[in-house]
Amino acid sequence: MHLPLLIARRYLFSKKSHSAINFISLVSVCGVAVATMALVCALSVLNGFQDLISGLYNQIDPELKIYPAKGKVFNSQDEKLLELRNWEEIAIISETLEDNGLIKYADRQVIGTVKGVDNNFFHLTDMEEILYAGDFILSDSVANYATLGIGLASKLGIRVNYMDPVEVYMPNRTSKVNISNPSTAFNFDYLYVTGIFSIYQPKYDDHYIIVPLAVVREMLDYDNEVSAIEIKSSPKGDIEKTKKKLQKYLGENYIIKDRQEQQEDAYRVVQIEKWMTFLLLLFILLIATFNVIGSLSMLIIDKKEDVRTLKNLGADKKLIFRIFLFEGWMITLVGALIGIIAGIGLCLLQQHFGFLRLGDGTEAFIVNAYPVQLQFSDIVIVFLTVILLGLITAWFPAKNASEGEVVSQ
Predict the structure, then answer these.
(1) pTM score
(2) What are the tens digits of pLDDT across the range 386-401?
């Protein structure tokens, strides 16, 4: 075994002449272990919340979505877009057209997002799972129907299957505003509410009303225009590969976004929270690794006779430096391994048993326990960070020992 590492190992794991040094080394290991465990658990919980948010959005967001690179709408009858229906990587294509509109019911009115969809939209999303009440129906031979977000329905004071319809107003693109009769600047239609959905996200729950695509096209005076084409890949298709193939095929006139890019702001907020938490806990870890300096300094004083003997036997400064550098590194390594193992263990227990609960168990939250999602990349980052901090903090006392600043001749 390498001589400096052998001596450092014996200093760490062998009994020392003073119990206080054993205790200080143990405190250093525990401090590093607790801080490392906290990092693993905190990052895993934030990963769990990100996974939870992703799952909620995925219920209504498509796997891939095609937007126009310029403007708000594009022609869905473009030859390239029609050809997509023959791709084996694509299972379902749904045309959608959305814009802001005024939704009115009785004496209440709210500005919301009117989303027109075709019949494929039901198969593209998990509408059955997110329906809070009623059914998802677009139209029949009698009337056109609407499905509202639960927050929007609450603002309007409406429930499913009410006898009175909601009125949807959208700007008339082709007419000028008549000051004497402002109502001519809007097109409107009546729709009966058959369903209310909820995904626990205000962006959709408080603002969206889903209606037939033909209704929105008529109110906006469009023929074949859409604001987006939503895609569900086939079971054998790879989403990332399909996205790249689509972008290459469609060119610069279109932008293709996956689910994470469709909700880029929401995911960015979670990522910022995650790494801000990492930096805060990193500061605590840095304080914990300072214990290594005290532990090494006490060990150097305790082993001054050993150091003097080694020097008399011909040991140079480099050997003395490496002995105590390895000693500090091993303290950090042991603490890091214990902390990571303990952190993984706690996360697995939380995943299976949910010991840490949210609220008082009254089911006021989406989930009853803190969500946890372990990621190998986070564990690697935490481990390398702890080791790097341990090496940096061990450097200074080891350097002093080799220079004879702590151990006098």
Answers:
(1) 0.77
(2) 888 888 877 777 666 6
